[in-house]
Amino acid sequence: MALKKNPKVDLKRKYQRYWEISFIISLTLLIVAFKFFPKFNQEVIEIDAPQELIIAEDVEATKQETAPPPPPKPPIPIEAPTDDVLDDVEIEATDLDVEAEVAPPPPPPKEEEEEVEPVFFVAVEQMPEPIGGIAAIQKKIVYPEIAKRAGVQGRVYVKAYVDESGKVTKVELIRGIGAGCDEAAMEAVNSVMFSPGKQRGKPVKVQVTVPVLFKLQ
Sorting pLDDT into bands at 50, 70 and 90, what band is 83? Predict the structure, then answer.
């Protein structure tokens, strides 16, 4: 036989009514609060903190390389057996003969003497001059054919080294014009005798610059 609860003591029967009354009261309180307290003052809190600068850096991805294998060890030399047998060596007697004549040692080789280049003065009291003047050098000039065809003209400067007797021992080109004229000028200066240069009345070696003119007729 099923049991029935007394409706007066059944609490679940009044849950719906209690919920509705509670909802109405909450809604009423909320409306009253918004009506009488529409604004709320918000407190602003200032936080003073140092700003940190963060720098982002790109980090290159590193690649791990495998180490190369170690080099192979050198082979250990192994002595190979040999069939050769060394012959017995006889050592002669080494008695010193005191009475024997000993040949004298050879003379030491002669040292070659270094050639010292003579010193030529650059400027002296009396400079050397070609005998016959510059005209004597110009007479010995052979104008190269290639220079004539090319129309090469100009002045060639030759340095002549004149010794105490007035002879030219060496010539050097200072400035040339090419086309064979430089060689012709040096050959002409080298074939002419000079009056020697003098310092304090004594002939000395002097170097002198000689201009040679090449001009077409």
Answer: low
Domain total for the chain? Answer: 1
Taking alpha carbons only, the member of 160, 157, 170, 171 closest to residue 195 is 160
Where residue 145 sits, what CATH number does that domain have?
3.30.2420.10
Q: What domain range includes position 133?
A: 129-214
Query: Has residue 192 been placed in a domain?
Result: yes
Query: For residue 123, what is the DSSP state?
Result: S
In a domain, 166, yes or no: yes
Q: Give the Cα separation of 214 and 217 in Å (integer).
A: 10
The model's pTM is 0.45
Residues 134-173 pLDDT 10s: 888 888 888 888 888 888 888 989 998 998 888 888 999 9
Residue 38 lies in a domain: no
In degrees and rounded to multiples of 5, residue 161 shows phi and psi of -100, 110
Strand order in the sheet with 154-162: 168-175, 154-162, 206-214
CA atoms of 185 and 142, how far apart (whole Å): 8
Helix (H, G, I), strand (E, B) or coil at 23: helix
